[in-house]
Each structure stands twice: as structure tokens, then as C-alpha cells.
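User: TetR family transcriptional regulator, Streptomyces glaucescens:
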Amino acid sequence: MQTATPARRKATRPRADALRNRERIVTAAREMFVEFGPDVPLDEIARRAGVGNATVYRNFPDRDSLVREVVCSVIDRTVHAAEQALAETGDAFAALERIAHAAADERISALCPMVSSTFDQNHPDLEAARQRFEELVGEVMDRAKTAGQLRPDVGVGDLMVAVAQLSRPPAGTACPSADRFVHRHLQLFLDGLRAPARSVLPGAAVTMEDLRRP
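Assistant: Predicted structure for TetR family transcriptional regulator:
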């Protein structure tokens, strides 16, 4: 007598509506973190996302997990923009410009401070996203330098400091008003990165390690 072999159960996948709800929560959280900071009530995030409070807590059991997801998603989208630029044009400096403008659109200046103020900087998800980003930006910059497009005395840290500063509204200025000038001024900065350099910069090229030092 043969014993029937039980059918193997397929791994359950999140339903499409569940994935959409998660994406809407992350999008709403990103917008509200930029507008109000990381302490915005989760109930308000749920309201903007158009979901119930229980849906937010089912996806993100605490505030830190939601903030971390927002920061990682921003990094991932910026990396995707750079990879797409390289695939489309093969032009390293064009990819560098795409990175800078994409990071400004993602409001890196508003989101990055949350990394050090609200949760563990060494969380594996954050470490992995950050490493992908830094390696790709470093690779793009190295390729641009090799091609004679980028001045040799700048580092990844120089780029990120400039993007953060240029995409942050001046004190006392309404965000919508300042937003009109972000990409214009960012492009002025990027043009200044082109080789050959027209001046000697003080100090050494800034790395991401330099930025993380207290």
C-alpha cells in the first residue's frame, strides 16, 4: 500500500493590494517626514496614505522600522537612477548628474539626519543600502575621473554635502519657493566639478567616512 506524498505548499506571497498599501505608507511617510520631521504621528501618516492604523502597524511595528524603510527606499531609488543612466548613455558624468538630481528630488537633506537621530545606524538593511549607494557613486566618480570628465580632487562626501546643502531650503524660506531653484543651483555646482579644474580646492577630497566621524 502506497502512502500518498503530501503536496508541497507554495510559499505565500504578499497580495498585490498588500504591497500597494505598503508602498502608499512609505510614500506618505517620506512626504510627511520631509514636511514635519520624523516625529509626525503615525495616525497622520495612515490618514495621508489612505489606510487604517492597523495596516500601518501590521507593516511597521514601530516608528524606527518605518523610518528605516523610508531611508532605504530613498537610497534604492537613487541607486536605480544612477544604474539607469549608465545603462542608457554609458556617460559617467551624465550618471553622476542623474545621481545628484535624483538625490535632491528624494529630499536627501531632510531624510539623512534621521539615520543618526532615530535608529541604529548599523542595522543590516541600512548598512546594505548605504553600501550599494556609496560603492556605485564611487564607481561612477572613478569612471568620470578616468574619462577626464571629473576633476580629481573631489570625493563622494563632497558630492553628498553639496546635494544636501543645495536641496535644503534657507532658513525662513517657504519650501515650495526654494524648490524652484534647487536643480538650477545644483547644476551650477555640478558644472564646477568638470575637468579641467579651474582652481585648487583647500583640504583633501571628502569621503563618506569623513562625514561619519564625530
